[in-house]
Amino acid sequence: MEFNNKKLEKTSKLINYVIAILLCGFLISLSNKLIDDVDQWEEMPTVEQFENHTFIDKKNDEIKKVNTKIQHKQEKRLNIQNTLKIVNNNYANAKRSYDNWLEARKTVGSPNEDKEVLSRANELDEYYKTQQEWREELIIINGEIKKLNQEKNEIEVLIYQENERAYQEREKAIRKYDLKVFLIRLLFILPILLLGIYFIIKFRKHKYWPLFLGYVLFSFYAFFFGLVPYLPSYGGYIRYTVGIILSILFGVYAINKIKAFIEQKKKELKVSTTERAKKVQTETAEKALDNHMCPSCGKDFIVKKWDKSVSNKDKTSTYGVVTNFCRFCGLELFKKCNNCGSENFAHLPFCSNCGDPINEEKAH
Questions:
Q1: What's residue 71's pLDDT?
Q2: Please, where are the H alpha helices in the chain?
Q3: Mean pLDDT lowest for which of 20-34, 93-107, 182-196, 242-256?
Q4: For residue 330, which of 271, 286, 280 has the smallest C-alpha distance?
């Protein structure tokens, strides 16, 4: 079976990432279960806790009594309306009968002196008076119902004001509750995050780094998904302020790291090529060769050449030339094998043609 170093390296990385993700997943599940239990230590405030139940019950009883009175008045109004309909019909019928009779009397004699005319007119007046009495009764009952409805609305306003007061008290209590839950979560998550940062700084090159990486991923998940969403808002000021502070800290850290890396590279390039060659790792050399880059300064070691022949006056063809030394930092890139004379990348341990050591230090 052929031994493939690159395939083994890729497989190892894949296995490492699988281990890290599995450990991270189980840690997240365990932390979610723990944090859910922690959240139950404090009961979320409800509106009922801040309501004046004695006051509200009293006012609800008053509303029930007023509703009972309104119902009785409405039943009475319905009876009056039905009676009024009958009275209106009686009056209308009597009026039509009187008008018809009066027209008939005009043709046979003087109605002004007729006693029967006066009797019928008095009877019609009685119907009209009855009609007016019932209308006044209807107006009175409508007024009483309107007054009861106003009384009911006033009671409902008092209940609404009491509920609003309870809601405001609840909002204050919820802000305190959110802060307390956040502090409890912070008590658990902050040490986890700090330990994750410590692992990044101290154990990046450790042989058990995949396990540390799983914990690091879990610590960042716990911070950004288990803590930040529960950060008290207070109108967004705290969250935005924390976001600004984190952005500044991360920016300062990144800028300093980049600046330190550039300064370190400048210092390394001032060191002799022999000393720099000793510090090149085999993995770095392999990647540099695959990407045709200098393993010290990272610049491309392929030089472009132009071929302008007479037959191609209007065309310019280019091709690459590999140099033995980096034209940017002077590091030796390729050298001949002492045994077979084949040219090899100077920072790999063995000759690709005969297998003899090229770099004695890296071969051992």
A1: 92
A2: 5-39, 53-106, 115-202, 209-226, 237-270, 273-279, 282-290, 360-363
A3: 93-107
A4: 271
pLDDT at 305 over 80: no
CA torsion, ordered 30, 33, 35, 38, to nearest 10 deg? -130
**Does residue 308 contact residue 319 with C-beta atoms inside 8 Å?**
no
Q: Which residue has the higher pLDDT, 362 or 245?
A: 245
Q: What angle do CA 35, 37, 43 make, to 5 degrees?
A: 105
Cβ burial of 211 (10 Å; 0-12, 13-18, 19+) is middle
pLDDT at 316 over 60: no
Rounded to the nearest 5 degrees, what angle is found at the Cα of 70, between the Cα atoms of 66 and 73? 140
pLDDT in tens, 75-89: 998 998 888 888 888
* pLDDT > 60? residue 124: yes
Number of alpha carbons in the 13 Å side-chain half-sphere of residue 146: 6
Using CA atoms, how far apart are residues 223 and 194, in angstroms rounded to an integer?
Answer: 10
Name the token pair of 264.
């370190």
**From CA 356, how far away is CA 342, in angstroms rounded?**
11
CA distance linking residue 165 with residue 123, whole number of Å: 64
Ramachandran sector of residue 355 (left: φ over 0; alpha: ψ -120 to 50; beta: rest) = left
At 156, list the tokens.
């409902």
